[in-house]
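Re: beginner question about structure tokens

> Can someone show what the tokenized structure looks like for a real chain? I only ever see the sequence side.

Sure, here's an example I had lying around. Input first:
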Amino acid sequence: MGLWEGLFAARTQRMKASDIREAFKLAERGDIISFAGGFPSPETFPLDEVAEVAEGVARQMGATSLQYGPTEGLYELRELIAHRMTGEGVPCRPEEVLLTNGSQQALDLIAKVTLDPGDAVIVEKPGYIGGISAFGNYEAAFWPIPLDDDGLQVSFLEERLLENRAGNGRPGSGPKLCYVVPNFQNPSGVTLSEERRRRLVELAVRFGFAVVEDNPYGEIRFEGSPRPHVKSFDGDGRVLYLGSYSKVAFPGLRVGYVIGPEDVIRKMAIAKQGTDLCSNTFGQKLIVECEKRGLLQRHLRSIIDVYRRKRDLMIEAMGEHFPKEVHWTYPEGGFFIWVTLPEGMDAKEMLPRAVAEERVAYVSGGAFFTDGSGPNTIRLAYSQAPDEWIVEGIRRLGAFLKREMARRKAGARPAGKPPLEQEIGELSRTF
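And the corresponding structure tokens:
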């Protein structure tokens, strides 16, 4: 590594392993109940139906199904997305849609074409690690804005924007982008209210920044009424909308998309050419055929029932087994519950002991904050674990939390490092 230490770009010093990606290491272990990875449940995948569709795609398209495709993506799928979004209050043409390798690539491309080192990006506090990483890789400066039960605290953001303008004495001195996950947010599970969506766009116009609306979970709603997209309030093309088939369909296909003004889409397509030339042609055509056959609509209806049941099981088990001093959110959809422990507890420091003593894992919440706060928070994902594991895993985690709180009250410190800490190595350090 000595040679390469002198060859790495300076910006790599800001890069670190994603806690979410590291979660795979625990999710693959059969002896540990993991609530770490927010992955779709494999039990929901309609394998037989997808296999039939895939065979049809191969026969229909022939060698073309395995060939390179256009950078912007298959026109047929872009047309389907544009039609659906128009019906949801976001007028859209296929030329305003760029298909990407999941919405994560869209985040990277947006950062690549908009950010210079030091440019400010508004992020949620706590915020999605993948978005924070994508913008951080291009040396963004973060403005973390706290959340409450109605999502991003827009009034707090307005105060910060006014203070910044007063201090700099000129317009255009503030942030360049605002990144939000408005529906069943990762990691908190909260949803941005309709009024705050409107106000956010008004602030974007007033203070001259663009909004990146990332909506991977919006269709997985268990209860309540859908909110209008943030982009539906967009009158001048300053909101970029990100969608994905990863959570509502099949993540392994890596099919996502971004919607925005045609000139922005063109610039992102040029940047994409230097990254991967094009996205998965076969996967795009598979999605098109699944849409045509109504398979995706049926699949979505079925997974909503599955994930609602899993949420309810986890919430009920938490109420039964967690200490009364612990608090959590109640998501109306999506994959995640956000847990707040008493002040002074450190979820990251506790994780190796939770794995060693109870064989249960979670994601420590501090990784979702850009300002070093949130050590006493935890993200729990109910989406992937089998139902019986949810009940048993929460029982184990509740027992562990009660012991940890008893240790704190007694002033006792855990003796030495748990044996499993060496085994899980990097995972225990990055969580």
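Each token stands for a local structural state, so reading them left to right follows the chain. Residues 295-321 form the longest helix (27 residues).
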